[in-house]
Amino acid sequence: MTNKNSIEQLPDGYLNKTPIFQFILLSCLFALWGIPVSLNDILITQFKSIFNLSDFASALVQSAFYGGYFLIAIPASLIIKKTNYKTGIIIGLAVYIIGCSLFFPASTMATYTMFLAAILAMAFGLSFLETASNTYSSMLGQKKYATLRLNISQNFQPFGAISGVLMGKYLIFQDGTSLHSQVQNLSGDALKAFQLEHLQYTLTPYKYIIILLAVVLLLFILTSYPNCKPTNTANHKVEKASFGETVSYLIKNTSFRNGIIAQFVYVGMQTAVWSFTIRLALALGAHNEREAANFMLYSFICFFIGKFIANVFMTRFNPKLVLFIYSIIGTILLLYVSFASDFSAIYAAILTSVLMGPCWPTIFANNLEVVDKKYVEIAGAITVMSIVGGAVVPAIQGFVSDHLHSMQHAFTVSAICFAIVGLHFLREYLKKDNSPTVV
């Protein structure tokens, strides 16, 4: 006789109930990739001054990071498809640790290229984690609550992002005048000594991250997790599709294709806004990097609050309509950032973060809803790949900043992106069949 309290896997891969400890441990991974996302914003400011980079060159930090996601998402999904989600997570954590460890030789070599290589390697591990965790979170329980579980897991990410900013503010940035003003007065051996000293500060956060990752990796190795893969039964036959068949199907799926474009543009916009918030604060009069980092911290707090506010709205109104309105307000705020003549521009940039929270999980969940189950793993991987927008849009915004000689005016790039996201949600809202579904 089956115990009613026992956790059982159903033929479609979902569970009859959610294993709480396993779900919380899995959700903690979302915080673990929130840390490097916010630390990248710190590194952009640090590297620009230390290596005397243009805005375009400094944005290559994000290009390396999100480019790593793009390169590994499909291989990661194929490995996960042949093994299981837990294996993908363990591989991801191990590679994440390797990437963090590469910061140590990079600081000794003191070359920007080596740091980019370390960030790329770290992103390889994070791509495994995201490819496995987003889909796995949706599978750990009853099917009707799949989107809710993914949104709950996504709520852990801001905690990581806030932790990353605090580590950057207190462990990487130092008191005193801004790095840019200090570097301007140095040359020769004095400049080299200054560069090496400040590059050493970048190591401290990654020492703590490596320790944390090792603990989480051990917990995952020791914790039993359900497979959550569809199984054959008398009443349920698992259909399998080849990689080529899956890609052909997804290309022809208009809703999925539009979702990929929206995710690409959204992640690019979010990354660009956060990448240049500290620089914007410095340009508008912040005393030094440590003071400017406060505005990045406020942005992530707003991001966290915005997720909860959005969840309330989306339970009462159509989520696509809510996100369309969010996108329009966000576009207006970013246009204000671009052309305001005083420090209020930085507060408008911070408020934009309130509107970003629900976009990623909603687009991700919708993308999985519109594909047949046999294609879901590759569909999830391609959706993760679409965050390569974070590699492209910040570089474009940096390029515009260099050529307009205005950090502020370059925020029009992000404003255009948010408007495109809004059009996507409007188009989805206006579809005839607009009833809510779950993955």
Automatic annotation (TrEMBL):
The keyword Membrane applies. Gene3D superfamilies: MFS general substrate transporter like domains (1.20.1250.20). Its main location: membrane. The chain crosses the membrane at residues 20-39, 59-80, 87-104, 110-129, 150-172, 206-225, 260-283, 295-314, 321-339, 345-366, 378-400, 406-426. It is found in: Cell inner membrane. It is a multi-pass membrane protein. The keyword Transmembrane helix applies. It holds the Pfam family MFS_1. Keywords: Cell membrane, Membrane, Transmembrane, Transmembrane helix. PROSITE patterns: PROKAR_LIPOPROTEIN (PS51257). It comes from the Bacteria. NCBIfam families: fucP. This is L-fucose:H+ symporter permease. The gene is fucP.
